[in-house]
Amino acid sequence: MRVLAAMSGGVDSAVAAARAVAAGHDVVGVHLALSTAPGALRTGSRGCCSREDAGDARRAADVLGIPFYVWDFAERFKEDVIDDFVESYAAGETPNPCLRCNERIKFSALAERALALGFDAVVTGHYARLEDGVLRRAVDNDKDQSYVLAVLTAQQLARAMFPIGDTPKPEIRAEAERLALAVASKPDSHDICFIPSGNTQAFLGARIGVRPGKVVDAETGTELGDHDGVHGFTIGQRKGLGLPGPAPDGRPRYVTAIDPGTATVTVGAAESLDVWTIDARGAVWTSGTTPSGPVRCQVQVRAHGGIATAIAEPVEDAAGEPGLRVHLLEPLTGVARGQAAVLYQPDERGDIVLGSGTISATSPHRHTVDEAAPVASR
């Protein structure tokens, strides 16, 4: 096949491209320029899209003997990922920009251009597995990225390749060393790629500005303090609340609700964070087929953690579009609007990704559900 390898300048995408070459594919490397003002150097393990990253990707392509290009997706990235990130926080949500980048850039904008140019598939260095069109968790659970790929449709997965998902990260670095790839020991990227400083609140504040509001007590409604904007908070947050101390009983306070309309941040006790029901919009089923009724599964609400057994059912969201309602069989805490609810089906060969939706509402109320609901068929 003729495949396009997305090369970020890191070790994972370099080895993914190398494996595509070794498999006999006709491979072309491409680095996505996602920043309108790329820095010359990274800040340790923070940041991306620097000139250093582009240079590292080019040198890896040279070692592999494949053509290499840089494609400018900066404006599309700003509109579809950065602006979405800012707007979501301003609306009191907690978005995942990596998930949006996969959905709208790498497997939409990039894939569309690749197909238009005659490529059969896009290769990336994501830690996930594709087996006969079925998306699964990676072998290396600590590096697993299936959560941020769960927004992909069956059509998009049919044009994707994840060559390194069957290998633990240390072995990927060792393989890069054997291939004489200079990125073999390059640090992994952390935090949000377009916020190299790591200071998300400062980044948001510079774009949203000051939108003052009140911090109130969940039980009494008492005003406890002021804040400069709901974008500085997320559900379950304990530190940085700007309050003089804990509750009168000595217990810590947590953010339990965010109302962007009134700019009100509500805080309360840890037990008030328990969630039993999740509603999600924009449902995607990776098989391409929507289940006919409730299915038993596991739901994950954060990229690393927040997993519980659940009964999930397809519904229509408030706009009449495909959505999800997830009834938890055990409570989860710190579940925020804007996060993804990703559904998994446990399997002896590794968890299967059933689908996902963007969390739009949660409830502390437990509903009676059929706990004997079947698993989704593939």
UniProtKB/TrEMBL annotation:
Disordered: region residues: 357-378
Subcellular compartments: Cytoplasm
Residue span(s) of domain tRNA-specific 2-thiouridylase MnmA-like central: 202-268
Entry keyword annotation includes rRNA processing: no
Residue ranges of every copy of the tRNA-specific 2-thiouridylase MnmA-like C-terminal domain listed in the record: 280-359
Residues annotated as site: Interaction with tRNA: H126, Q339
UniProt xrefs under Pfam families: tRNA_Me_trans (PF03054), tRNA_Me_trans_C (PF20258), tRNA_Me_trans_M (PF20259)
HAMAP family registered for this protein in UniProt: tRNA_thiouridyl_MnmA
Name of the protein this chain belongs to: tRNA-specific 2-thiouridylase MnmA
Organism of provenance: Lolliginicoccus lacisalsi
Classification lineage: Bacteria, Bacillati, Actinomycetota, Actinomycetes, Mycobacteriales
